[in-house]
Amino acid sequence: MEKLHELSEGLEKSIRRANTIMYRRGHSLLSDTGIPDSQFNVLLAIEENGPLTMGQLCKKLFTACSTATDLVNRLERKKLVERIRDDKDRRIVRVHLLPKGKKVVQAYIADRRDFLDRVLEEFPSNEYALLLEKLEWFAGKMEKLDES
């Protein structure tokens, strides 16, 4: 049990360090675009999940609907997203990513991937699949436990 605790402690520290670095790099990239983290999180949620209603967006962002509405309003003014009414039920309005918004998300993700490419340059190529497999297992296990 002590070994498991030591492993958990080491993993938590390593994940936190890696997350801090990735966050800082992303924050720096976003500051060049003039898009705050909170607005970028809206773009990312829509990119990952497709068009979302405001209610769905609030749940994804863990925020109040008034806050999400304000974020979407600002992104609409920047021509990064648009609200579109559902054809079948006009009461339903979904937030869609516009090409300019998609370009911002893609640039952000490309920068992160380029950075990870540099990090992994010295990692043994015969262990790539194993690393990815273990990280996928780890993330999947965390998602399952988080849902329950």
Task: Give a short summary of the structure.
With 148 residues, the chain is mainly alpha-helical. It has helices spanning 2-33, 37-49, 54-61, 65-77, 99-120, 128-147; strands spanning 52-53, 81-85, 93-97.
Spans of at least 5 consecutive residues whose pLDDT stays below 50 are none
- Biggest beta sheet summary: 3 strands, antiparallel
Category from helices, strands and their pairing? mainly alpha
User: How confident is the prediction overall: mean pLDDT?
Assistant: 93
* Main sheet: strand order: 1-3-2
Please give the number of β-strands.
3
Oligomer: single chain
What is the beta-strand fraction?
5-15%
Number of helices: 6
Write down the Rg. 19 Å
Give the distance, in angstroms, between the N- and C-terminal Cα atoms.
23 Å
List the secondary-structure elements in sequence, H or E.
HHEHHEEHH
Q: Given the C-alpha coordinates, what overall shape results?
A: globular
Fraction of helical residues: over 70%
Explained architecture:
The structure is a single chain. The chain is mostly helical and 148 residues long. Helices cover 73% and strands 8% of the residues. The chain contains 6 helices and 3 strands. The protein has helices at 2-33, 37-49, 54-61, 65-77, 99-120, 128-147, and strands at 52-53, 81-85, 93-97. It has a 3-stranded antiparallel sheet. α2 (37-49) packs across α5 (99-120). The longest helix has 32 residues, at 2-33. It is globular. The two termini are 23 Å apart. The mean pLDDT is 93.
Brief descriptors of the model:
mainly alpha, 3-stranded antiparallel β-sheet, 6 helices, 3 strands, globular
